[in-house]
Backbone:
């Protein structure tokens, strides 16, 4: 990474904040689609509260992941690498386990249109990859970065 961060990273941070904030608001807003999904799920079986708790954890970890992304972009050193390695690992775990609503929605799109569903998955992966890359580099490759 150069001494000065490329402007595209700063633009990405700005754009990436919107879905993170939107997910937080959607989860906390009463009668949102996500709120309704989890209320109905829990109404059928109380143990489905686990899926809700994992989604809350996912929202929290995604919000916290903005910190190493900012630190990577603005080339600042903060805390030790164990914290960022742990956060990155938790982020991967919650990506897999904490998005029940999103996985079900994508699955339902496959019943309607396979091409649209595949395009959506490709877009979501390509949109998230820079964030995971930056957090990975910040957590595991700090010695190669020019951090102040």
Residues:
């Amino acid at each position: 990474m150069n001494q000065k961060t490329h402007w595209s990273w700063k633009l990405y941070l700005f754009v990436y904040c919107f879905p993170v904030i939107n997910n937080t608001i959607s989860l906390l807003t009463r009668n949102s689609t996500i709120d309704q999904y989890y209320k109905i799920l829990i109404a059928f079986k109380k143990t489905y509260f686990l899926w809700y708790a994992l989604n809350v954890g996912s929202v929290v970890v995604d919000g916290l992941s903005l910190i190493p992304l900012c630190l990577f972009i603005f080339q600042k050193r903060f805390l030790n690498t164990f914290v960022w390695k742990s956060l990155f690992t938790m982020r991967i775990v919650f990506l897999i386990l904490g998005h029940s609503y999103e996985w079900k929605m994508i699955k339902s799109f496959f019943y309607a249109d396979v091409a649209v569903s595949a395009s959506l998955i490709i877009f979501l992966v390509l949109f998230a990859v820079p964030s995971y890359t930056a957090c990975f580099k910040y957590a595991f490759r700090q010695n190669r970065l020019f951090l102040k």
Observations:
- The mean pLDDT is 89.
- The helical segments are 7-28, 33-44, 49-64, 66-73, 81-97, 100-112, 114-140.
- The chain has seven helices and no strands.
